[in-house]
Amino acid sequence: MLFEFRASPEDLLPPFTAGSHIDIALPNGLIRQYSLCNSPDERKRYEIAVLLEPSGRGGSRSAHIDLLRGDTVRISEPRNMFPLVNARHSILVAGGIGVTPILSMAEHLARRGASFELHYCSRSVARTAFLERIQSSAFANRVRVYIDDDHGRGNLDVSAVLRAPSPETHLYVCGPKGFMDYVIQSANGAGWADRCVHKEYFAAGTIDEGKDRPFEVVLASTGRVVPVTSEQTVVQALALHGITVPVSCEQGFCGTCAIRVLDGVPDHRDAFFSDEAKAANDCFTPCCSRAKSAQLVVDY
């Protein structure tokens, strides 16, 4: 479903950049993040698309069922964890609903006459969001669409698309985790530099929680020690001791809850931090990440 949010007639919405998302307070009380998919040049509206996930945690279902035309909703200002950089050429690769931030990028690049190409993969014609919009767009000749049940469109040849890495060419990929991992691994194998590969996951990977062990979080500001059981998240453990950490996605991909780590080794389970940031071990997401060491000393 496509949703359009508008400010009151006399107001402009806060500006945003391609790749941005907003937090939306849904009618069922959940807060979820959705990428903006319209042109960043627009100031009177925000557009998002929400894929119904029947086995999800309830956010998409509330959007589909509870959000009605004319409703007033509370949203955050746009934030961008997936920004475009100034490049000679951009390769945009989208899988499924991952096309939402990619579409905004294409709109932005096309309006500025920048060099880019867009490769969009989908399972079926019925589930290919924005197909008509893309085909009638001013940048339609820069787009290749690949649909599993439409064999006439062919299949994405990732090796061919990524065959010529260059410091002046940047890759942007968004979609289901397996799809993204395949594209990113292909880029690594073709010799792409990490700084030229940009990604945004919609959820963190699946973790075997059966091997989780208890540990302690030490608050550097007070020296207070908070035990975290194997069944708790750090956020939950802190809350039981009256310590509130702001959270949003609760899955480790928005960065709202990120806390500095002063000592100890985090067990990073987020999709927010880059591999380099995770290796530094100086910050972690307490909504889902844990500890490899017996203690984590945090700047809180």
Automatic annotation (TrEMBL):
Recorded protein name is 2Fe-2S iron-sulfur cluster binding domain-containing protein
- Span of domain FAD-binding FR-type: 1-85
- Keywords, A to Z? 2Fe-2S, Flavoprotein, FMN, Iron, Iron-sulfur, Metal-binding, Oxidoreductase
Cofactor(s) needed = FMN
Give the CDD domains listed for this entry. Answer: fer2 (cd00207), PDR_like (cd06185)
| Pfam families, per database record | DmmA-like_N, Fer2
Alphabetical list of InterPro entries matching this protein: 2Fe-2S_ferredoxin-like_sf, 2Fe-2S_ferredoxin-type, 2Fe2S_fd_BS, Beta-grasp_dom_sf, DmmA-like_N, FAD-bd_FR_type, FNR_nucleotide-bd, MRET
Native organism is Paraburkholderia solitsugae
2Fe-2S ferredoxin-type domain residues: 215-300
Q: Which residues form the signal peptide?
A: none
Keyword Oxidoreductase applies: yes
Q: Which domain of life is it from?
A: Bacteria
